[in-house]
TrEMBL record:
This is Vesicle transport protein. It is found in: Membrane. Keywords: Membrane, Protein transport, Transmembrane, Transmembrane helix, Transport. Pfam families: Got1 (PF04178). It is a multi-pass membrane protein. InterPro entries: Vesicle_transpt_Got1/SFT2, Vesicle_transpt_SFT2. One of its GO terms (cellular component) is cytoplasm. It comes from Emiliania huxleyi (Coccolithophore). Belongs to the SFT2 family.
Length: 134
């Protein structure tokens, strides 16, 4: 069903604030990550990212967001990002492997940067140049 403008704003605000709170609380779990227990950080960080995605969905509409994410220049980055979100939760909740959790979080960060850069003019090209120089 179609949402009214007010419902979209309320939904987006709720998801955005909840996502920020989750991301903020993941920073409080950073010490556990550094001490070799990445689970608490990874769950909070991933849920914060999922809530942020939901906020965008409320604002631009779910169909429009899916079309944007599936466009030619964003398709691979979006797929890797969504798979890394699922992979992080799978590694934490089911496999309980610290190495896989750490790897999934790193892939998630990289995919988020690459996907975000696709929305900026010359963003992915600039990232490629930065990585080549390193």
């Amino acid at each position: 069903p179609a949402l009214s403008y007010r419902q979209r704003i309320v939904g987006a605000a709720f998801c955005f604030v909840s996502g920020l709170l989750m991301l903020g609380s993941s920073l409080l779990s950073l010490t556990s990550l550094l001490l070799g227990s990445p689970g608490p950080f990874a769950v909070k960080y991933t849920l914060g990212n999922l809530l942020s995605i939901c906020a965008i969905g409320f604002l631009v509409g779910w169909g429009n967001m899916c079309r944007l994410m599936c466009s030619r220049e964003r398709r691979v980055a979006s797929l890797i990002y969504l798979l890394s979100l699922c992979g992080t939760l799978l590694a934490v909740l089911r496999l309980q492997s610290q190495l896989l959790v750490t790897f999934a979080v790193l892939v998630q960060l990289g995919a988020l940067a690459w996907s975000g850069a696709s929305y900026l003019p010359f963003g992915q090209r600039t990232l490629r140049l930065c990585f080549k120089s390193v």
